[in-house]
Each structure stands twice: as C-alpha cells, then as structure tokens.
Amino acid sequence: MKSIEVKAERSYSVEIGIAWRDRLREILGNHNRVLVIAPTSLSHFLDFSTLNLSDEGIFWVPDGEDQKSSAVAEAIWQRCGEMNLQRSDAIVGIGGGATTDLAGFVAATWLRGIEWYAFPTSLAGMVDASVGGKTGINTAAGKNLVGAFHSPSLVAIDLDFLKSLSDRDFAAGLAEVIKCGFISDASILELLKETTDIQAARAHAAILVEKSVAVKARVVGTDFKESKAREVLNYGHTAGHAIEKLSGYSLRHGEAVSIGLIFAAHLSRNVCGLGDDEVSLHGELLAKFGLPTTTRYSLDEIVVLMAGDKKARSGEMRFIGLSTIGTPAWIENPTSDAIRFAYESISK
C-alpha cells in the first residue's frame, strides 16, 4: 500500500492499494451509524453481505451526473434524518467522481459538516474528484456551481475496481492523468509516450494513480479553497465543462476535458508561447488512448458557457494555460481572435 498525505483544512491520507471491504469494515466499527452512498450500476458488484450494514444504511443513487442534483441530495438528507445521523456518524461515498462529489456535499451540509470517506471506483475519481475536498452538485446553470470545500477523513483506493472499467471509462480517467503531466509532472507524459495503447496503460495504473494523486496533493496543500494557485488543476476544464454540459453529459467528464485540453493548448500557443511540439503532444497522447479531440458544438455555444465558468471575474473569461510543460500560466480576458484560433483546433 502507498499512502499520500494531503494537507488542507485538515490533513488526511490517500491510501492506494487497499482492500475496500477491509477498510469499510474499520469505518463501520468506528461510528455508530454510517450511510453508504453508491450508484445503482455498482449494485451487482458491491457485496455488503459480510458487513454490519443494514438496508437503511445503503442509499443507491442514479448513475453518472444524474445523481448530482438537488432532488437526489434532498432524498439523501431525508434518509439522514430517518437514520438520526449525528455529528459522530459518517457518510461513505463508493463510486466514480460524481458519487464522491455528491457524498462529500451531503456530508458538508448535514449538521453543517460531518465526517465522510471516499472510495473512488473509477480512474477519474481516483486521481481527481475524490482528492482535494471539493464537493458539489450541478444546477441548470452549470456543473458544480453549488458546493462546499469539505475534506474527507480518508480516500481509500482499491485498484481492483479498475479491472471492471470499460476501455472508454479508463481512457476518460487518463485525460485527468495527462492533465497532471502537463501542469506538473512530465514523467507522467514520458511514461505514456512509451505506452503503446490503453491495455498497456492499464498495466501502469498503480504508478499513474500515485503520480497524479501526488500532483493534486501538492497543489491542494498550497491553496485549499482555490484562491488562485489551485486553479491550475482546471487546465483544459473551462472549455471542457462547457462541452460536457452541451452534450447533456452524454460525454464522460474526461472525454470533454480531453477536447478542452486541445483548446487550452492552442490558446496557450497563441497567448503564452507554448511550443508547437508541446501542443502536438497533447493531441498525440489523447488520440493514442481513443479520446475525442474535436467537437460539433459552435463557438458561440461554448463561449456562453465559458463566460459562466467559476474562474470568470467581472464578466471576463479566465483560462489556465501553459508557457512550457510544468509551467502553468493564467490567461486573463483573451482576445476574441485568440479564442477563435483555439476553437478552430477543436472544431469538426
């Protein structure tokens, strides 16, 4: 097992390579009541029969982004009340990034904050969503616009979950891994350059998770509430979130981010002087693992949503770019020509 410490409003560990049932059994023994939140798609995979957990203590949620709604959150709050969940109790989220976002948000808001534990089951959840203490739900206006900063007490990563992931879902997680390589750890990129295909990438899952979590832990430790430095983790996400929403969330988060990374790379070339080879590397790595790099949505549609991004200030768009690999740059209110140039790189 590998353990990485995250220092935020409190310190907690990300344990990589644990057995999820053993760790959950310990958590159940440490609290009087525990509510486990998990998506219905995992109901055939998660066997709680050997654990001291009643039916009342399991809340099955819809799959994907459909679970991150005020209606689902309200239904879970209702269950918390029925269970008489108190400050000494806890919530556990077992699932992908959407589930850990939701579980953390419910924990942050129930009794103004109770303990919660993240058990990510997807690659994207392991390297991104479950680490860092960002929790939230979606609204009609956009993704993750309602939420709270509330760190888990533990992130427990059982790598065996990755064996059940489809190639599509594993590739979607690789988009976040590749992002970590570009903003901070070039050794991730070097490893993936030598990796022939997605099956070979699966063989490197443990080290890719470890390196990516380490990147996020370092960034979060310097800026927990995203005053500025933590924004580097949003490289590729401004356009990515817009495209994800326009797709009605039919695109995986990582698939939308993949397109957003191409947009951000070309914007960086135009504004920050990112080299042509580094820009090309974005497309080469993403395409190698079958990730999309273009979109059918119009520039006008994308710009409207990017203008509502959380990084926007006083109506002006802001982006994370790169001047070189490992050196993020803030792009404040780029010209319409620069945005159009970047859009042309992703337009079908």
Provide an overview of this structure.
The protein has 348 residues and is α/β, with parallel strands linked by helices. It has 2 domains: 2-163, Rossmann fold, CATH 3.40.50; 166-344, Dehydroquinate synthase-like - alpha domain (Dehydroquinate synthase-like, alpha domain). Helix content is 44%, strand content 19%. Strands 1-2-9-6-5-3-4 form a 7-stranded mixed sheet, sandwiched between helices. A two-stranded antiparallel ribbon has the order 7-8. The longest helix has 20 residues, at 253-272. It starts with a strand and ends with a helix.
Q: Largest sheet at a glance?
A: 7 strands, mixed
State the CATH class of the largest domain: Mainly Alpha
Q: Give the H and E element order.
A: EEHEEHEHEHEEEHHHHHHHHEEH
Q: Span from first to last CA?
A: 44 Å
- How would you state the average pLDDT, rounded? 95
Helix-and-strand structural type: alpha/beta
As for the number of domains, it is 2
Q: Indicate the radius of gyration in whole angstroms.
A: 19 Å
Fourth-level CATH superfamily of the largest domain:
Dehydroquinate synthase-like - alpha domain
Q: What global shape is seen?
A: globular
**Spatial order of strands in the largest sheet:** 1-2-9-6-5-3-4
State the share of residues found in helices, binned by percent.
40-55%
**How large is the count of helical segments?**
13
Query: In terms of per-residue confidence, which ranges show pLDDT below 50 for 5 or more consecutive residues?
Result: none
Strand coverage percent: 15-25%
